[in-house]
Structures are given as structure tokens and as C-alpha cells.
Amino acid sequence: LGEQAADDTVSLSIAVAPEHVPTDLTRGSRVDVWVVADRTVAQRRGGAAAELVLGDVAVLDAPVVSDAFASATSRQLVLAVPEVDEEQLGEVLAAVGDDRVRVVGRG
After folding, report:
1. CA distance 57 to 71
2. Please, what is the Cα angle at 44 between 43 and 48, to 5 degrees?
3. pTM of the predicted protein model
4. Is residue 62 within 8 Å of 75, Cβ to Cβ?
5. Which of 89, 97, 100 is nearest to 50 (CA)?
6. Which of 42, 3, 34, 28 is nearest to 16 (CA)?
7. What strands, in cross-sheet order, belong to the sheet with 30-36?
8. Do residues 36 and 49 make contact, with C-beta atoms less than 8 angstroms apart?
9. What is the pLDDT of residues 52-76, one digit of tens each?
């Protein structure tokens, strides 16, 4: 299932609302992962509305729910995250639970 991750990457599986993922993502696609700031924290800190947390990462798998009767509330993506970006994983995982992750396709 999916492509093999490189030795210098970790596999990250996330579930993202379908409307926040490009519809044409497949294995091998390249994406940027953005986290939308928590409004109250962003207002207090005067920070940006969103932050790029993982740039140009490979999609190892992007299964699509094919059952016409199933109502997909999320889309699973398995990403190959470079080990150098591993510290960002906690931020992405916390943001997924709050529906603050946005995935942007590259190229």
C-alpha cells in the first residue's frame, strides 16, 4: 500500500476534512501542509493567520472512500516527512484534532 518512505523520513498519517485537501492528490503527489492559527492565540500574539509547517512533502498514500453510501468526514493522507522536520509533527497532530490543517498541492 503506497510508496516506500525514504530512510531519512518518517511516515505521518493524518485525517483532514475533504474540503481542505485537493481532490486530485494521489501517491507521489507533493504537498505543503499549513496550520491555521487558533484565533485567540493569534490575536494575542499578533501572529499570522496560518503557518507553513511542512513544505514540499511526498504523499505516500491518499486513499479515497469509494463507497457511494459512505459519507466521508475526513480524507486520510500518509505523508513522508523528512526527519529534519520531525519537530513539526506535534504541531500538525494537534492541529488535525482542531480541524486547523490545510493541504496545498504543489505542481
Report:
1. 28
2. 50
3. 0.82
4. yes
5. 100
6. 34
7. 9-16, 75-82, 50-61, 30-36, 101-106
8. yes
9. 999 999 999 998 866 555 556 889 9
